[in-house]
Amino acid sequence: MQELLYTLRLWPHHHMNTQLRDELLSMLDRNQGIVDTIWFCTPTHHVDIAEHHKSAQIMLEAAQLFREQNICVGIQVAYTLGHGDGLFAGKPDDLPWDTMHGQDGTVSKSCACPRDTSFHNYLTEMTSSYAVVKPDHMWIDDDLRLVQHSPITEACFCPRCIKQFSTEQQFAYTKASLLNALHQDQTVRAAWITFSSISLAMVAEACTHGMYKHFPDCLMGLQQCSHENDLLAGADYYHMYEAFSGPAKKAVVSRPGGGFYDDHSPRGMINKAIRISRQVARLPEYCSTACAEIENFPHHILGKTPRGTALESCLYLAHGIDSLSYAMICSSLESIDDYERHIEMLGDWKSFLRTMQHLMQGTTPAGVDPYFSRQHAIQKVSDGPEDFSWRRVYLQDVYGLAELGVPMAPDGTKSCCYILGPDAARGISQKELFELIQGGLVISAEAFEILHEKGYTNELGLHVQVHKGHTKEFFTNHELNGQYAHSFWQSYFGRSIPYEIHSDTGDALTCYEDTQTVSTLIHEPQIGGRIAIIGNGAWDLWANSAKQMQLHQMIDWCSKGAMPCVLKSAVQVHMVPRVNKEGKILTLFVMNITIDQSPIINILIRNAAGPRAELHRPETPTISVIGGNLNQQEDTIQVPPLAPWSVAFISFT
User: Fold this and answer.
1) Contact 626/639 with Cβ under 8 angstroms?
2) Most CB atoms within 10 A, among 106, 124, 129, 472?
């Protein structure tokens, strides 16, 4: 395990402009020991190789000054394919290579075709220029993708790419026939996804070759986007990381990312944290660093607050990264004194973060897996050839349950059961479905209906239909409802159609008041395993206390009591339990995600690593003991009230 590092991301003016460079150096000198690494930045558009050589020489001078402050140096390649025709496009009129084509015939003015060998040669020369800096790492920016290169949404359908794919497939495709085949033929689509992934790997290989032939000690890495929106490149960016690793099978590095630019709507960081957790889970074993993106774009002080940036840092660390990169001063829209407030806050919290990292050593997240298949993009589609909905999966609703305290472990090795939403249901096979049920599955009725239409549910003894009445539900006297038996709940802001659930053998947890038909049901089908179906408001965050507790009890039932922690208080918190190889819970991260102080938070803990629960907080070095003689098999801890938008970290020893 490497020690937690803080990385400050820069833009080209931080080495090209000596005044900005020196102001930054002075600020870091006033705050020594906080920033461990800086990433210099190449020009933010395609420029002549001579300009790269000039940039590299000036960067080398700046690097020596930062190294004198014991700050390590990396480089981010800001522009490979290009971010889009608007953002950082520069002057593309005389590009000496072909640009990418979209599926609708749009031709980019600035973004390169990933298979143009002239472009590859340019990238090799470009990265060779920066080998003189001898960076510890070189990071390729997240424009190394084939989606969202405005105005193009999916690429590349240029004549070169179509011709090369045709040669591989031994079939002469036109663009129209290729689009039709991608729509109708899942085998062709799978081949196109692999082809597209290798297209990106060619770009990665060109960059890697340029650096390695002059400075092989540099580690190459990807500033990647989340998988949910970029399945056109495959499920795990495998080919790109193979290209970075090269024939020598060197270690690689990763910067998981994906949006959340300001903290005006702070719960957005939870969604990003879960997506980062999945990215970490899908990294190759030879990846030595997962350095989370904290992006404060466009880098002004009215975007993210210093404390919000620190909270985000804690959250991503809890979800499995081992270092943090901060893009917060890049635009230089404020004075260095304004940015210094962020650095000071991060310095105040650094000891706490390193304590978290130390105590989490050898652990993995545990909880529910918000499942989507690695084969999701190979689903059958019903819309026309222009529809590329298969290249993304919408999981925001499912991820929202983490705001009600449901611990999530995407693709986790210690996942206790699964949650399946409608969009993810479109992309799984019947074999996968039955495997999920064997592991315990919570599913919305809308998702279940999609599986029924695919012919997957005949053996489950369950049927769903749309509910025609109102959505007020009453809770049955089933033991999982506990004290809330005979309580009521109504979904006023439900984002899905209400369904009734019919079964001869399942147990009803809630029923619609007007028809007495079942709205939430648990069931043990003949094929084995457990399944819980929520017919109404499955992703409704306006749950009352009864609905929230039922959700936790239902998930725990599906897991057969394997959840490491179960929320027992009606509070809005985000929890991240982490367990060791033996499945014993070593740490628990708890975040109050409201603007009010929380009440005392009761949490059931199972299989604790030790009888002593210690509470750590970033604002104080004092460690509180909240459990000194716990029953390690199962016991309840009480987390003292948490201030608005604050965190607590509990270790079991």
Assistant:
1) yes
2) 129
